[in-house]
Amino acid sequence: MFRSIYKLSTHFNNRCVMGILSRGIAEKHPSMENYFKGKSFIVTGAGAGMGKVITGRLLGLDAHVFAIGRDIESLPCKAGQKMTRITVDIGDWESTYCKILEIGPVHGLVNNAGVAHIEPFLETTQHGWDDTLNVNSRGVVRASQAAAKNMISEKIKGSIVNVSSTISERAIPDHVSYCASKGALNQITRTMAIELGPHGIRTNNVNPTVVLTKMGKIAWSDPKKSGPIMDRIPLGRFAVPNDVANAVIFLLSDYSTMINGLNLYVDGGYMTS
Length: 273
Known about the structure:
With 273 residues, this protein is an alpha/beta fold. Helix content is 47%, strand content 13%. The chain has nine helices and seven strands; from the N terminus they run H-H-E-H-E-E-H-E-H-E-H-E-H-H-H-E. Strands 3-2-1-4-5-6-7 form a seven-stranded parallel sheet, sandwiched between helices. The longest helix is centred in the middle third of the chain and has 28 residues, at 126-153. The mean pLDDT is 91.
């Protein structure tokens, strides 16, 4: 008798579990685009390259963007768009924190601002080293501190996306400060994921290979330089800014609510070789 009751109970529980799973699978999820309407996001380094494309994509999704850059003239400016332009040097510890804190609560932050000083190891300068680490690593910490503080104060379960690189893990010549800054960024992101996660704030990296921005096309135009990296990319091409923007939009959205502390490689398979 007890065995029959146990079997009946197990059968009933299994049916309940399967019913719940089936409903979860069948449940319609709102489109990713709808998530961004009426929400606010910060994009650093919004004046050029990937930052400008990411800013444009967010504006196209009807979000309000706080576009941050060193030069006000380089920042996007189109009538009718929900955008606030802010000038600040992300490498400046105090002004970065103060300017972003003044923005108030947002739903996401994209730490895209970055610099690269191309110097051989034996000729690396103090300026090149300090400027690269200040912007690419320290600046991310400071900007994120302010943005996260504002999110926590309003109990916003936001998303922070840091733009890292594949050469955070695969070194290349003449990039010692850049490689160091992006390697540090990977660990900064993991630490942020651990500490901000309990507040409902997710932190992830996007790690692209070479990106063909205007500057990227110039910097990697020499086949002798680009060839060895291209040969290791199974898809046979470098990234374009929209490839990176696609990954950023995904990590900002509610399509990635269980993703935290990730390195998302946008590299055509480069990291598999």
